[in-house]
Design brief:
The chain has 76 residues and is an all-beta fold. 0% of the residues lie in helices and 41% in strands.
Length: 76
């Protein structure tokens, strides 16, 4: 019988410790809506969201796959 050891690690993973000393992956804070909107050049209006690091983005839908994705906005 052989023993296989696997090391699981993630680079930069945030970890918390509970009161019993057990380790858990930290829960990422949810993004929040800003209450503002973005209108693109075609007149489509999107709600603006902000990450915990105050990066702003809108949620768009791919025409080819129909999947939603984040489109980050860069303010000049």
């Amino acid at each position: 019988m052989s023993l296989l050891c696997i090391s699981l690690h993630s680079i930069g993973q945030k970890i918390t410790v509970d009161k019993d000393g057990n380790y858990h992956a930290a829960v990422k804070p949810a993004d929040k809506t800003t209450g503002k909107t973005y209108t693109d050049d075609k007149g489509v209006v999107y709600d603006i969201y902000a990450t915990s690091k105050n990066k702003i983005y809108v949620i768009r839908k791919s025409k080819s796959t129909g999947k939603e994705y984040k489109c980050y906005l860069k303010i000049n």
